[in-house]
Amino acid sequence: MKHKIVRKSNVLIEASYKLSTQEQRIILYLVSQIRLEDEDFTEYSISVKDFASLVGIQHHDKYEDVKEITKKLIGRVFTIKSAAEDLQVSWLSSAKYIHGKGTVVLSFDSKLKPFLLQLKSRFTKYKLYQVMQLKSSFSIRLYELLKQYQSIGARVLEVAALREQLGVEKEQYKNFNDFKRFVLLAAKEELAEKTDIFFDFEEIKVGRGVGKIRFNIKSKEEQQAEPINEEDIIPMSPQSTELISLLELLPPDYREQVSIRKLLKSWLDKKGYDYVVRNIEYANMGSNAVNPNAKGKAGSNYRVYLSKTLAGDFGMAYKDDRQAREVIEEKLRQERETKAREQKERENRDQIERENQERARVFLESLTQEAQAAIREEAFNRLDQSQQDLVRRKSPGTERLLKLMMTKICLERMKLSTPDNPETASNTQ
Questions:
Q1: DSSP H or E stretch at residue 96
Q2: How far is C-alpha 181 from the chain's CA centre?
Q3: Out of 22, 88, 171, 371, which residue is the most buried by the measure of CB atoms under 10 Å away?
Q4: Residue 215: helix, strand or coil by DSSP?
Q5: CA–CA gap between residue 321 and residue 317 (Å, rounded)
Q6: Angle, alpha carbons 244-125-88 (nearest 5°)
């Protein structure tokens, strides 16, 4: 196992899927069995005993446990996304157990050929033993994602996308601090202790929360790995994070293209970061290499479209229009929040008043008729002269006016606040 090499297409590295640590080990072991000259998948045979050792099964009933693992693996469907299509595929197409020999024969799904066979460029390779000693499935996946950018020295990933790529469940570690503690920091410790790379990371705020993570990737001097696809990578120092950030804005299928990297670096040197960002955003929106045209086909060359966009600074007007829209949307959002808050306050006041009126009614009904008449007389006396005259004439609405004053007196007797002081009322409930 010391010299076994894992080679995976970068598209496969970027895919989002969830595998247990045991399942990861099996898949990576099988990938390491593929030879450079293989033009097709073969059947990969492994003894049940070695299989059990590989995944850490130690009790006696190994056969049934191994069968359960392979059964789950065959059902693990995941999606590989590209500009042209989304492919749903399983890792394994079959698992065959040879009776009397204690052997299991595994076969990859044939649709995985472009991502595992005859890889000439845009792939990541590493030694199998580096990941076989990792205990966390998150650590294994993060190792691959960072190993892919080892020669660059840094990588920026959106938190939401990273969670999907690592296979973190939607309800798992929803709070970022939990995700940081149980996934990122745990992987950081495990990779530093057991593999040929280690990393630090920075949290990048997007809005009110952490939206992106910038990983700074370093190699251990005593285990310096060979550069991967060195001919495809523009030399960069680990501090050159602006270009790395720009690459992350590109659609995944174009991040590895040398011509596009050189294009971005040229314009970054000439015009600066903000200039390039706005034009990448415009190109991503307008190119039908990324967004299919009316016939549903990707037609234009993304690099050519991006080059024209950068040269003409088409992103400037797009940015101005977007900022204007954002200002309007923010104003509308604030107005909606203000109206909602005022509505809530009105509802709270009305609710408190209804509750106090009900308390006053119950209190009044508990009194003798003489006491009720006394409160009614006191309420009448508290009205001003004009209101009293209206009550005497039994003008419309005056009975309600009198009842409101009686409610106020009842609340005072009950040592509650008056209805026009809801804050105190809510504190005395």
A1: strand 92-98
A2: 16
A3: 22
A4: strand
A5: 6
A6: 85
Two domains, one topology: 1-132 and 133-233: yes
Q: What is the mean pLDDT of residues 264-277?
A: 86
Q: Kindly list the distances between the CA atom of residue 13 and the CA atoms of 125, 145, 146, in Å, as whole numbers in the listed order.
A: 10, 6, 10
Q: What is the CATH number of domain 1-132?
A: 1.10.10.10
Helix (H, G, I), strand (E, B) or coil at 10: helix
Helix orientation angle between 159-166 and 137-147, rounded to the nearest 10 degrees: 120
138 in Cβ contact with 187 (< 8 Å): yes
Identify the CATH number of the domain defined by range 133-233: 1.10.10.10
Tell me the three state secondary structure of residue 144: helix
Domain residue limits, the chain: 1-132, 133-233, 331-427
Give the separation between CA 386 and CA 396, rounded to whole angstroms.
14
Instruction: Write the pLDDT tens digit of every residue in 100-123.
Output: 888 999 999 999 999 999 888 889
236 burial (CB, 10 Å; 0-12 / 13-18 / 19+) is middle
Check: CB of residue 153 under 8 Å from CB of residue 201.
no
**Could you report the per-residue pLDDT of 140-173, keeping only the tens digit for each?**
999 999 999 998 889 999 999 999 999 999 889 9
